[in-house]
Specification:
Order of helices and strands of chain B: EHEHHHEHE
Number of helices of chain A: 16
Helix content of chain B: 40-55%
Radius of gyration of chain A: 24 Å
Shape of chain B: elongated
Distance between the termini of chain B: 13 Å
Largest sheet of chain A: none
CATH architecture of chain A: Up-down Bundle
Number of helices of chain B: 5
Largest interface: A-B, 69 and 72 residues
CATH superfamily of chain A: Formate dehydrogenase/DMSO reductase domain
CATH class of chain A: Mainly Alpha
Order of helices and strands of chain A: HHHHHHHHHHHHHHHH
Largest sheet of chain B: 4 strands, antiparallel
Helix content of chain A: 55-70%
CATH topology of chain A: Formate dehydrogenase/DMSO reductase fold
Number of domains of chain B: 2
Strand content of chain A: under 5%
Oligomer: heterodimer
Distance between the termini of chain A: 8 Å
Structural class of chain B: alpha+beta
Radius of gyration of chain B: 25 Å
Chain lengths: ~475, ~180
């Protein structure tokens, strides 16, 4: 699809004849608008497949582990977790940061790639945003319950209470309350706004099919959307603004999460590299999770025309880039520990790599630094099974990164007499294991009842959407 | 008594067709009319002669409110209502108040943008004369429409119908109000 010769182009272009780069085809096989509608709506309108029920029941069973773990915790006390001095933050905060990080790819795809006009985002952004919201749900469980007396969790918010005392806004933990709750809220709003035109499509289709009840339900949330261009004009502007504010939001959320550590004085935490390093790690883990979720869905629902090899290549390359940034950050942390000539800082890093938790450190290095390097190879990127397996390693590695940062730093602080070794209790393990069930159950409900891909946006990137016709 | 006419609706099948038809309707001087498309068509705002959306102004107002809310809340709670000395730090400083105010700026901007978009668009409106048209059910699938309202001063049943047909519209129908 060569760009048309521009009459106003500088004369030099006539002589050097620059190569015409082919535009990547985002929807393959010249699919029509109605094919896209049928394909996406068909997932919702068809009979519930058996695999869905099997997965959903398994997911609910796994989620029951979280329910059981939390019930036992609330009934007994926060001591049922393996926390003990000096390690008072462990799996709870590891899991919190892990899940929040997963969510960041969703916002990156929907917001940053939207601003950068990366049109390939259209086929994956809806599912990635859903992933964000469900990851934030899983993340929120941990800090809320680790406060101990969970029925006082509302103390986190500045609500007048009988103690008169207010929250300490000098603390990064309080900043985090606002960052994460804003992130959750804005992610839901962004997701919902993007879905309105597609809900209207579903409303109309259920109406034609005679299913008044579902037509009513989808119609209720479609807000009476009728595709008016006067509406589209404001809608597109609102969507662009939401993308514009979600970009600084996503960067600030993980920055503030990293402040939870960086603002403290613990060796291994008190470093200025944390904000960019955490954001890169978050995006890295998030893309790992997007691929983990989208590759099976692509195979099950035969979405190869919509999630093309080009999409997989793009996601693998972002994983490679952010994974390499993370690897650079690991190296830079070591360098600064040495260069700062601070004996505590130096010890913290030697201890990470060769101390009691060296096993966790080397799992982290091999999963996060070595795994993404395979994505340099086109043959690897073309092998979806292998990509999926590598992404599982990325997910595992990023969980270990948070474990290494949080636990090794606390277990060996300034005073050797207070040093300890932390192991999780079975309650913590169950609670964390169960969050994968919570996440999967929510995601399965999303796949079954809501449009998996933004139909309106997909139609807009097909060649037939060009108002000026084909060249 | 015959039902009142809301306007005329014409269907189009291809994006360039509806785009050029919109230009013709715009040039004919109509003001109360609309194009219905299943997805935002690039450049159609210009073809319709629409002005830039005012949603950004509402967003800006929301963002400023959010930032001021954050700063004021932190000053009022920590430095005015119940000043409490923690770690020898000042009761108020724009430095530590910034992260929370920043998040509230974004939160309020998001709400202002979305509420603003709904208000400007007159949504939610679950009932609209256009939605009574049978074929409109494909308006969010793959068909485009142009609607010209009867309240437009230039509206004239025969002439407007002729204009829509000449512009390439098929199945030009009257809509009941």
């Amino acid at each position: 699809m060569a760009h048309a010769e521009n009459a106003t182009a500088p004369a030099i272009l006539q002589e050097v004849k620059p190569a015409v780069l082919p535009r990547a085809v985002l929807v393959q096989n010249q699919r029509s608008f109605s094919w896209i509608t049928e394909k996406i709506c068909g997932i919702i309108e068809g009979k519930t497949p058996t695999w869905w029920w099997v997965c959903f029941i398994v997911a609910c069973f796994i989620a029951s582990f979280t329910v059981a773990g939390l019930t036992y915790l609330v009934a007994t006390g926060v001591g049922v977790w393996g926390h003990a001095n000096p390690v008072n933050w462990a799996w709870d905060i590891v899991n919190f940061v892990f899940w929040i990080g997963i969510g960041h790819a969703g916002t990156l795809i929907s917001a940053i790639l939207c601003l950068l006009r990366q049109k390939w985002r259209t086929s994956i952004n809806r599912a990635a945003e859903a992933m964000t919201i469900f990851a934030v749900v899983c993340a929120a469980i941990f800090p809320v319950f680790h406060v101990g007396r969970v029925w006082y969790a509302w103390y986190l918010f500045p609500i007048p209470n009988s103690n008169i005392i207010w929250q300490n806004f000098r603390s990064p933990l309080e900043w985090d309350v606002f960052a994460v709750s804003t992130y959750g809220t804005v992610s839901v709003l962004f997701w919902y706004i993007g879905m309105i035109p597609d809900l209207a499509t579903l409303r109309d289709r259920f109406f034609v099919a005679g299913n008044k009840f579902r037509s009513f339900l989808y119609g209720l949330f479609a807000m009476g959307w009728r595709g008016s261009n006067r509406h589209w004009s404001n809608y597109e502007m609102a969507y662009l603004i939401l993308a514009g504010i979600s970009t600084p939001l996503v960067l600030s959320v993980h920055t503030i999460v990293s402040f939870d550590f960086a603002v403290s004085l613990i060796p291994g935490w008190h470093t200025t590299i944390f904000p960019p390093y955490f954001v890169a790690g978050a995006i890295f883990s998030g893309f790992g999770m997007v691929l983990t979720l989208m590759l099976p869905l692509r195979a099950i629902y035969h979405l190869e025309d919509l999630i093309t090899q080009y999409h997989i290549d793009c996601m693998c390359k972002i994983t490679l880039a952010t994974g390499t940034i993370v690897g650079y950050a690991y190296a830079m942390e070591f360098f600064i520990a040495w260069y700062s000539a601070n004996p505590y800082e130096g010890f913290a890093f030697i201890n990470r790599a060769f101390g009691h938790y060296a096993w966790a450190y080397w799992i982290m290095i091999s999963c996060n630094v070595i795994t993404p390097q395979f994505f340099w190879s086109r043959r690897v990127r073309n092998n979806t099974t292998l990509v999926w397996v590598l992404c599982i390693f990325v997910n595992v590695g990023m969980w270990f990164e948070r474990f290494v940062i949080i636990v090794t730093s606390l277990a060996r602080d300034f005073l050797p007499s207070s040093w300890g070794y932390y192991s999780p209790s079975i309650v913590e393990i169950f609670t964390f294991f169960g969050t994968f069930g919570v996440f999967s159950a929510l995601f399965l409900l999303f796949v079954r009842f809501l449009p998996l891909m933004p139909m309106a946006e997909l139609k807009a990137v097909t060649p037939a959407a060009d108002a000026h016709g084909h060249h | 008594m015959a039902a009142q006419t809301y306007g005329l609706i014409a269907a189009f099948d291809k994006t360039p067709d509806v785009y050029h038809a919109a230009e013709k309707v715009r040039d004919a001087g109509y003001r109360h009319w609309d194009v219905i498309t299943p997805f935002p068509v690039h450049g159609l705002d210009k073809a319709m002669g629409l002005k830039r959306s005012i949603v950004p102004r509402i967003s800006l107002a929301g963002g400023l409110t959010g930032f001021c809310t954050g700063m004021t809340m932190i000053w009022w709670t920590d430095a005015f209502d119940y000043p409490l000395l923690v770690g020898g730090k000042p009761f108020f400083s724009p430095m530590f108040a910034f992260p929370v105010s920043y998040e509230l700026t974004i939160l309020f901007t998001a709400f202002a943008t979305i509420i603003g978009m709904f208000v400007v668009n007159g949504l939610p409106m679950h009932y609209h004369p256009v939605l009574k048209h049978d074929e409109i059910r494909r308006g969010m699938d793959d068909t485009f429409f142009i609607v010209i309202e009867a309240r437009d001063p230039r509206f004239n049943l025969e002439n407007t119908k002729a204009l829509l047909e000449k512009a390439g519209g098929r199945d030009v129908r009257e809509l009941e109000a």
